[in-house]
Design a protein that fits this description.
mainly alpha, 8 helices, about 65% helix, repeat
């Protein structure tokens, strides 16, 4: 059995239609998620003037969980339904995606988040996306640790239900399980740092709303958490004798 390793990808992969379709799928899925997720925050804020109440937090968590469930589901058969640069990073660390395809995914995810936030700003009459901020009384290191822990749970769930070759019937409910853990983490961490767990989800509102305070937390935390989850699940939970496959790349006869 060959050792598990990174795959850079062939030069042809960068222009192959399969890669383009996968990147487009990630762009659309991320735009769907960010539009619904950030839109729910703006909508609830407009209706109730305060999203920090228990009811407001619950509504935001449910809306984002459902949106993420749908986004993962619509991209699952084409790109794997990452919808999150941290998930892509975890898959790259685990050797399930080539470096070339990962770069395409990251670009597509960031662009999808930006377009979604621009559309929100246009359709809401110029409302600035709120994005994410560290809550009162919470230090930067505390928020960073929270993002690491929550993203670890999200990516670990992704590996267990969507990537593990022994997942069986769990593969059919992977988008639902991933959406559930996202919503639960928002309920757990929302009041403290907003619970991003997704650099693209944080970047779009930060750029369009121009809110950059503590933004580094929403990159560093998720990438560390996803890297830990990818290494742990791939090299500890999946037996070494299990056949190891990467996401489909361009056919050899291309």
């Amino acid at each position: 059995m060959p050792p598990r390793r990174f795959v850079f990808g062939r030069t042809e992969d960068a222009v192959h239609p399969d890669t383009m379709r996968a990147a487009l799928s990630e762009f659309i899925a991320t735009a769907i998620f960010v539009f619904a997720a950030e839109g729910s925050v703006l909508s609830i804020g407009k209706l109730y003037k305060d999203t920090s109440t228990g009811g407001g937090l619950m509504l935001v968590a449910v809306a984002q969980a459902l949106a993420f469930f749908v986004a993962v589901a619509v991209g699952f058969n084409i790109s794997g339904g990452h919808v999150n640069p941290a998930v892509t990073f975890g898959a790259l660390i685990g050797g399930h995606i080539s470096v070339i395809r990962a770069v395409y995914y990251w670009i597509a995810q960031l662009l999808g988040a930006i377009v979604a936030c621009l559309l929100l700003r246009i359709t809401t009459g110029g409302m600035r996306p709120l994005g994410f901020a560290v809550g009162p009384g919470i230090g930067e290191l505390q928020a960073l640790l929270l993002e690491i822990v929550m993203t670890f749970g999200l990516v670990y769930t992704f590996f267990a239900t969507a990537i593990d070759p022994k997942r069986g019937y769990l593969g059919t409910i992977a988008p639902l399980a991933i959406g559930f853990i996202l919503g639960a983490n928002i309920l757990a961490g929302g009041p403290f740092d907003g619970a991003a767990m997704n650099p693209a989800r944080a970047f779009g509102p930060a750029l369009v709303g121009w809110r950059w305070k503590n933004h580094w937390i929403y990159w560093v935390g998720p990438l560390i958490g996803s890297g830990i989850a990818g290494v742990l699940y791939e090299f500890v939970m999946i037996p070494t004798e299990t056949p190891h496959t990467h996401q489909p790349l361009a056919p050899e006869d291309y």
